[in-house]
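Budget justification note: compute hours in this period were largely spent on complex prediction jobs such as the one shown. Inputs:
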Amino acid sequence: MQVTYYPGCSLEGTARDYAASLTAVCKALGVELIELEDWNCCGATAAHALNHHAAIALAGRNLALAEKEGRDLVVPCPLCFNRLKTAAQALTGDKRQSYDYAFQGDIKIYDLADFLAQEPLLQLLASRVSQPLPGLKAVCYYGCMASRPPGITEAPDHENPTSMDRILSKLGVEVKPWSYKTDCCGASHLIARRDIVFKLVGRLYDKAVEAGANCMVVSCQMCQANLDLYQDKILRELERSYYLPIFYFTELIGLALGLSQARQWGHMHFVPPARLLAGVGLISC
Amino acid sequence: MLSNPKLIPEVQFMAQVEQDSGIAVSACYQCKKCTNGCPVTFAMDLYPDQVIRLVQIGQQKAVLNCSTIWVCSACETCTTRCPNEVDVAGIMDYLKEQAIKSGIDIPQPRTYAFHRVFLEDIGRRGRVFEGGLLPRYMFQSGEIWRKLKDRELKDDLELAYHLFRKGRLALTPQGIRARAAIKKILANSTG
Ligand code: SF4
Ligand code: SF4
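Corresponding output:
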């Protein structure tokens, strides 16, 4: 199966672990990712905060390019996904004339987790698991952008998304229910108002531990950064002593498929997962 | 602000907002569901429902000058849950644009500087280069001086070092070929 792949800027930098793991996993599952030729930044939070028209046009250029390629578009970053979906709606709406980029809506735009959780792929995944992951107790943390607002994302259950839950269950991970799946982590406030992020993230740690999790699993590189980079510092300020590795769901798929590279990805994390993985007998160290 | 006895309703402003943004602010009946689900009310000077109400009664100055529109994390919870389909998050964006156009002092200058630097970076190459973004932000926002003083800079440098060591810091920016198209988007859209 071939799809067009829109990586987004972070996957060339701070989220290289996400990029590496999703590329390996897609390959193993027979999904050929063809990177969108000459893609540009979706505009992210900055564009829609300062300039609505530019936000639609920046994302819109990518859609116009992708539509020419004809394949469905798969997007790992939920913020990029959200911006592209927003542009898709604007470019097919009654103000489409005010933009230089045309999009008919002939291709589908998928959030990566939703894409991989489609039933046929899920069955294939289940049949390929060679190293189940018992002992991992995870809460799935989806964040905001793949779900809200549902009028844009077309998420089937925006208050209770299940794509990662369904994937992880196939891997033998014990998925813990919790009520904070789509709460906000503070997103790009990490730079200018990290106090806001620290407060929101601190609560997420508390709630994850309360739910009985020994790790958190995400599909968003902003969530991963916010939960991973400063975990030490946030917990010190809160006087807590948790240890919560933050995995991308694709990293766990890679481990369960027994991919040889999969152990390397964890080395890129700030909260090293090796101690957890060794503790539950998944690696020896 | 809200307890100001001399607050005089002015109806033109809401009509303007509705026309420009396409968002039906008048549909709000003040149920406060937006505010109850908002994750960052603790850092706001006006609650989301208050911003909407102040737009309804034409308090342009109050809403353009508030911190709330900048503190909003764009999580879209309010927009999703409003029973009257008021796109509250969309109003936050619309008001930020208006605040900039009106030339007032932005009450959250660091957040504004971050967005600005980010957008400029897109204009430069068509993609964002995280490694260049942060230093530029620190100088533009003046954060560098504060961080020097209270030693937060040491944290930041340590973070950068670890990102680098772990292979998560790209050292060379990626640019696209169609930079002219991106420059055109940003030039056409401002103004
Ligand atoms: S949820 Fe909607 S109707 Fe209720 S106060 Fe907020 S904007 Fe108004
Ligand atoms: S979009 Fe902004 S105002 Fe609305 S709930 Fe989220 S943070 Fe609050």
